[in-house]
Specification:
8-stranded mixed β-sheet; 5-stranded mixed beta barrel; elongated; binds 4-amino-1,4-dioxobutan-2-aminium adenosine-5'-monophosphate; binds magnesium ion
């Protein structure tokens, strides 16, 4: 039998404990405790579940003393034995060990995450090992459940998953600064003292990593109806905050024959679906987040599932903020972009739940948003949630070619390079709408984690691109 044919996952054993049968488990030691009576209790985790399996090693085992002496946090091992009903303890079952083989040693003096209590900051230095801790293991499983649920949600509704490019010549989203991609030898160029010639570069023109898959998503929506993208996006904004990453994942649905109301309805159903999935499929992880990360997290997530989202216009929100009597670090005036403190005040203090703000001033939003009849606002919507602020940004798109062309010009963008985008209006344009959900902000919201760097396995932020 191969290794995988021999192995049983701890999650299966805990779900369906076949008391009296034998099992082989492979994993990493979390803790070890020796009793005076001459047995060792070893907590094993194999990543398949939040909970560990307790292995009881009797001192009658051959080489008991030398084997047990080599078990430390992080040691990997294979154990075989009988599943027996547990006396007390968290689980109903434990493994009465009959054979134990150490697969990989772990020097307790050198293992960087050996301590019981470590700060998230400390663990950020060890992103390659931190998934072995309760918190980061739980976050990895939550991320997976949320990602699978995203596909499930759209698949159920007949949306087609479109793979939009990572490298693109189009940097005109106006969504933060893009990372340029080049094969030009920069050191050589600097030494030559010449200006770069991008016609000689790999693509024959300047290109960058995508800041959003939306524009390409629109092309497919105007062919296939309902589509979505889900992939990495890159923004070189120098914002060292707890809610910004330089590399993050974004989900962007785009619907043809849809308006702003359809967009809001989709966003609300989508967030409800994802929050429900987390509560139903990660109950153990959610309980842990409530106990150890943020006491209010389950209530907030349930609130998203159960209550309708409050919908109001940007103008109404600005009035609320101005008459609030609250002192904000940034003053609010109609026309200014809302800061995170304003968003959080609205969603946490005033409405105590998710809020959708619509109809923002056109000056603070992207060129592609549909201009309203008032000429001052666009059909934009942002979804705000407690603990995070903006989690979703979207809009009904401008479908009138003349208005869109003048918006492109007004914003100082190139009509020529957006000619393909204008084609989508030139040939069979239709009303359409979509939005983008920042996947890490979602994971942050659902887990209650305070810093976005801790909800992506290997965070990229200004000054940090190592492991
Ligand atoms: O509001 P944004 O910039 O919207 C767009 O990019 C549109 N193209 C979306 C669309 O209509 N298809 O970004 C969407 C979401 C934000 O609401 C936020 O949740 C997240 O992406 N986001 C970030 N998440 C982490 N780090 C950053 N630097 C982020 N910037 C935006
Ligand atoms: Mg936004």
């Amino acid at each position: 039998m191969s290794l995988r044919q021999t192995r049983q996952k701890i999650t299966e054993i805990l779900k369906n404990p076949a008391i009296g049968s034998s099992a082989t488990v492979m994993g990493w030691v979390r803790t070890k405790r020796e009793s005076k009576a001459g047995v060792a209790f070893v907590e094993i985790n194999d990543g398949s579940s939040f909970d560990n399996l307790q292995a009881v090693v009797p001192n009658t085992l051959a080489d008991y003393a030398s084997l047990v002496a080599r078990l430390y946090p992080g040691t990997s091992l294979q154990v075989r034995g009988q599943l027996v009903a547990s006396q007390g303890g968290r689980q109903a079952v434990e493994l009465q060990v009959e054979s134990l083989e150490i697969l990989g040693e772990s020097d307790p003096l050198k293992y960087p995450i050996a301590k019981q209590k470590m700060t998230y900051e400390h663990l950020r230095e060890f992103t390659h090992l931190r998934a072995r801790t309760n918190t980061f293991g739980a976050l990895a499983r939550l991320r997976d459940v949320l990602a699978q649920s995203i596909h499930e949600f759209f698949h159920q509704r007949g949306f087609i998953w479109v793979h939009t490019p990572i490298i693109t010549a189009n940097d005109c989203e106006g969504a933060g600064k893009a990372f340029q991609v080049t094969t030009i030898d920069l050191a050589k160029l600097a030494a030559s003292g010449k200006a770069p010639d991008f016609t000689q570069d790999f693509f024959g023109e300047p290109v960058n990593l995508t800041v959003s898959g939306q524009l390409e998503g629109e092309a497919y929506a105007l062919s296939l109806g309902d589509v979505y993208t889900f992939g990495p996006t890159f923004r070189a904004e120098n914002s060292n905050t707890s809610r910004h990453l330089a590399e993050f994942w974004m989900v962007e649905p785009e619907m043809a024959f849809a308006d702003l109301e359809d967009d809001m309805d989709l966003a609300e159903a989508f967030l409800k679906h994802l929050c429900r999935a987390a509560l139903e499929q990660c109950p153990r992880e959610m309980e842990f987040f409530r106990e150890r990360v943020d006491a209010g997290v389950i209530d907030r997530v349930k609130n998203v599932v159960e209550s309708p989202f409050t919908r109001l216009t940007y103008t109404e929100a600005v009035e609320k903020l101005k008459s609030s009597g609250e002192t904000f670090q940034y003053p609010v005036e109609w026309g200014s972009d809302l800061q995170s403190e304003h968003e959080r005040w609205l969603t946490e203090k005033v409405y105590q739940g998710p809020v959708i703000l619509t109809d923002y001033p056109k000056e603070i939003k992207a060129f592609y948003m549909k201009v309203s009849d008032d000429g001052r606002t666009v059909r934009a919507m942002d979804v705000l949630v407690p603990h995070i602020g903006e989690i979703i940004g979207g809009a009904q798109r401008e479908d009138r070619i003349d208005v869109l062309t003048s918006r492109i010009q007004e914003m100082g963008l190139s009509v020529e390079s957006l000619s393909w985008y204008l084609d989508l209006r030139r040939f069979g344009g239709v009303p359409h709408a979509g939005f983008g959900l920042g996947f890490e902000r979602l994971v942050q919201f659902v887990s209650g984690m305070g810093n976005i760097r801790d909800v992506i396995p290997f965070p990229r932020t200004p000054g940090h691109a190592g492991i």
